[in-house]
Amino acid sequence: xxxxxxxxxxxxxxxxxxxxxxxxxxxxxxxxxxxxxxxxxxxxxxxxxxxxxxxxxxxxxxxxxxxxxxxxxxxxxxxxxxxxxxxxxxxxxxxxxxxxxxxxxxxxxxxxxxxxxxxxxxxxxxxxxxxxxxxxxxxxxxxxxxxxxxxxxxxxxxxxxxxxxxxxxxxxxxxxxxxxxxxxxxxxxxxxxxxxxxxxxxxxxxxxxxxxxxxxxxxxxxxxxxxxxxxxxxxxxxxxxxxxxxxxxxxxxxxxxxxxxxxxxxxxxxxxxxxxxxxxxxxxxxxxxxxxxxxxxxxxxxxxxxxxxxxxxxxxxxxxxxxxxxxxxxxxxxxxxxxxxxxxxxxxxxxxxxxxxxxxxxxxxxxxxxxxxxxxxxxxxxxxxxxxxxxxxxxxxxxxxxxxxxxxxxxxxxxxxxxxxxxxxxxxxxxxxxxxxxxxxxxxxxxxxxxxxxxxxxxxxxxxxxxxxxxxxxxxxxxxxxxxxxxxxxxxxx
Length: 494
Fold this sequence. Notes:
The chain is an alpha/beta fold. Helices cover 39% and strands 19% of the residues.
């Protein structure tokens, strides 16, 4: 068969890429055609996304296809982080740069939002984990701080939907990205009128919901004139990056698995066909986000490699440039579990001097204070592994069974020491790969939309045949990990 060519636009919190996928009927191959920074910017005291620059870079990826042998791409799909959005006026014009989920406007918002709807009721409807940056609470802050802006807004589009609109002129809300914001009824998969009314959000802001795999439409004629004769349709992929990453988990149909989509965040959970909204899931603060084919990603948001990444940026600001391999090697040469942190402590979720924050945390909690970069990164790795153990045990408890293994996908699989520590702490095998899970999942949904793959099961079979997966068997000191876990539970108040 003639190769099917597709373009995946994969946007992360610090960089974006255009990746051309080629499918020959048996194997999927990837080739990066454009890479660019997507760094946020602070303007007038607000932490925002430079969305027009990001859109410019997306156009460059499309143009590179138009002037190369990839001009025959059939589809284009965009995935991004969740929860953030842009506001458009009645003429379809963007009103301001989208606010970044780490902006301080939502600090303490949960207490303010209680006057509109109790957290317990919000969870009963949405099944979504409580995070300060959930879309519903961002809109709550927007209405509190900037009601004039909301008053002239006609539509709210999450980031991938906004970029799809820039490409096609069509306004839609893709289900998996919409599900991240605590605005959908988890049982019906529709916008929750009860929540929208309770928070006094204008109903007209919400665009029609569509499922991943549906076609948005062709590029605007003005863009074809600008970029070249590209006849590709834009497709709604599983546009939340974690939803795309979970599509790429190389599991066999019917296999029960735990996944970690590992990168800036660690999204850890399991795949179900219906939401799990119980007293236990509320207590554990697990989330029910939409997946491909009507599935639910039942997961926990864990602060992932952001802590190492931001620490590395701090050391660079101090004139010490380390590669990630250098930091990993220094970490694994350091004593294990001598100091641990709660990765989800708010102190580690904001940009700044995180090495200092880690030392202060250890001092405040009466632990060994890390003395160098290796000890700091070892504390990060050990603590993430312990948080993974907590999440695994919570999932086992809620499902009433011991899920036998963990699949780690995404860029975090390149941190092989952390993969091994995860296996050791959780006492079960870890399968790591594919690395490019989000782009692979994005492209797989495009291939399903084109009719070249039948369903998710067939897509995963192709993924298993196309990409490397490494196995890490548990081999650590179980008594040491049990002791460290007991200390970890005390730190997080359990």
